[in-house]
């Protein structure tokens, strides 16, 4: 197993790669993506209102890199055609149980192109191959159709509903919980060979 802090970038295909954030260089672009679509993001991402400036985003990226160094989480910038378009993360890495939960967001002009689906596949490959995770989880508000679709397209199994589990701007929402096991991921990848 590679050290978690070695990873700097991960190529998914000729157009998409994931990279450890560079706070001073990446914060402005990420803030612009968030700020240009706050109404949409606010619906499903409760942290959006805390990002009020480029400096807030830079501080956030610095903190996630500290947590990356401590092997607590893994936040990666999504690049598409040499442009920053969003982020994907293992929000919490549970080393005792070898599991992680995924979060992701994408700028409005890049949705509907399969980028998030490929980014999820990429971070799963990192998690199962490099970090030897046994289980990866996606939680999605039941009314977030796009996020639920991403989980299904990547072979995640719906385990059930967590009732009123996610506090969003308009109150508590039920969440679907999905998981993918390392054994299932291996089976999916063997079939593709």
From TrEMBL:
Record keywords: Transferase
GO annotation, cellular component aspect: cytoplasm
Source domain of life: Bacteria
Any one GO MF annotation of this record: protein N-terminal-serine acetyltransferase activity
InterPro entries: Acyl_CoA_acyltransferase (IPR016181), GNAT_dom (IPR000182), Ribosomal_N-acetyltransferase (IPR051908)
Domain (N-acetyltransferase) ranges: 14-178
Record flagged with keyword Transferase: yes
Entries under SUPFAM superfamilies matching the protein: Acyl-CoA N-acyltransferases (Nat)
Matching PANTHER family: RIBOSOMAL N-ACETYLTRANSFERASE YDAF-RELATED (PTHR43441:SF12), RIBOSOMAL-PROTEIN-SERINE ACETYLTRANSFERASE (PTHR43441)
Protein name: Acetyltransferase
Highest classification ranks of the organism: Bacteria, Bacillati, Bacillota, Bacilli, Lactobacillales
């Amino acid at each position: 197993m590679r050290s978690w802090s070695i990873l700097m970038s991960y190529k998914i295909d000729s157009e998409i790669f994931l990279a450890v954030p560079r706070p001073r260089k990446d914060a402005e672009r990420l803030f612009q993506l968030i700020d240009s679509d706050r109404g949409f993001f606010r619906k499903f991402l409760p942290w959006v209102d805390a990002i009020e400036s480029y400096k807030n985003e830079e501080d956030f990226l610095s903190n996630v890199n500290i947590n990356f160094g401590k092997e607590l989480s893994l936040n990666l910038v999504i690049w598409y055609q040499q442009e920053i378009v969003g982020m994907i993360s293992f929000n919490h890495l549970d080393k005792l149980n070898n599991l992680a939960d995924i979060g992701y967001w994408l700028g409005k002009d890049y949705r509907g192109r399969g980028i998030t689906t490929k980014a999820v596949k990429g971070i799963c490959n990192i998690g199962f191959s490099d970090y030897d995770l046994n289980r990866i989880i996606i939680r999605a508000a039941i009314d977030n159709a796009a996020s639920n679709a991403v989980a299904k397209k990547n072979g995640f199994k719906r385990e059930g509903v967590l009732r009123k589990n996610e506090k969003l701007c308009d109150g508590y929402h039920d969440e679907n919980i999905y998981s993918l096991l390392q054994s299932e991921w291996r089976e999916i990848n063997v079939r593709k060979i």
